[in-house]
Amino acid sequence: MTEQQETQVKPQPTAVVNGGKSRSGALLGGVAILLALGLTGGLYLHGHKSAVAQQGELDQLKLQLAEAMSKLDQSNSKESEQLAAVGKQQQLLQDELKGLQNRVLDLNDKRPNDWMLAESEYLVRMAGRKLWLEHDLISAITLLGNADERIKALNDPSLMPIRKALAADIAQLKGMPRVDREGLTLKLAALSDQIELLPLSTVSMPEAKIEPDQAVSTNPDEWESNLKKNWVKFTENFITIRRRDGAVEALLSPQQEIFLRENLKTKLLQAQLAVYREQQALYDDSLEKAQRWLTQYFDTDNSATHYMQSELDKLKGEQIQFDYPDRFKTQAMLEEVLTERLQRILASN
């Protein structure tokens, strides 16, 4: 009986263990369910927030797109209006141009000679510019002659006073002295090239004074004079002293010589510029200084220096500045005739 009781008592611990396992499994299952529910809720909240944010961004993009489309429509509308205005303005300009062309053709048919008269007036104005701005006397005379040929071809007796004034203007210009500016500048340039060949002047020493006769006298009373003369003869082989009265000019250093020659070239270049600018005072001053430096620093006995001095003397006598007429008589007469004819034509229309 004792063994059977022990055998019946042994299964009881197994039941206790199984009961504990079932409780812990249920607890773990509940925790897992709670975690799953929490994770699911968190994912849902995160997804909901993301969806809301994306929806907001999408709405903002839609709003920006709508604004851009509105601005584009407004811009297209403005461009269309501008194109329409430009087209209308272009049409107006074309109409005005066509009207002007018709008027020009009408004027040409009525007074064809007026164009030749206007061309003559233009030639006279060009002659004035050549004379007053460029001082080109020959071109001015040529242009006035061409204007006279145009008026002559018109064969209009009413224009004879204009031709008379043209003849007076041409005669006045032909009576003015002409200067060979190119020739003057070429001569000055040639002289400038010869400056390097000019020799400088050497030191000029004043003549020494002639010493009195040192001959010994036979008169015993002149023993002091004889003693002095003998002493002079004795010492003249050691030291010789000669008195010279006058200023002695020192030689130029090599650097000073270079500066001198360059300054002389500069003066001749200034004279060339003065020829084209018609600056008589500058021209004369430049040549005068060049001559003074030649005389002061260069050998005047040398043939090259003498030639340059003579050429500068000739160039100094040239007149390069003149008083030109302020206005042509013909110009005012032509302007008056053209204005009168134009007013007459416009009045007839």
- Between the first and last Cα atoms, what is the distance in angstroms? 160 Å
Total strands: 0
Structural class: mainly alpha
Determine the oligomeric state from the structure: single chain
Kindly state the mean pLDDT as a whole number? Answer: 79
Low-confidence stretches: 1-18
Helix content: over 70%
Query: Order of SSEs, N→C?
Result: HHHHHHHHHHH
Put simply, the count of helices is 11
Describe the sheet with the most strands.
none
Which word captures the global form?
flat
Task: Summarize the SSE layout with pairings.
Elements: H1 2-9, H2 12-110, H3 113-132, H4 137-154, H5 160-174, H6 181-193, H7 223-235, H8 254-277, H9 280-297, H10 303-316, H11 329-348
Helix pairs in contact: 3-4, 3-11, 4-5, 5-11, 6-8, 8-9, 9-10
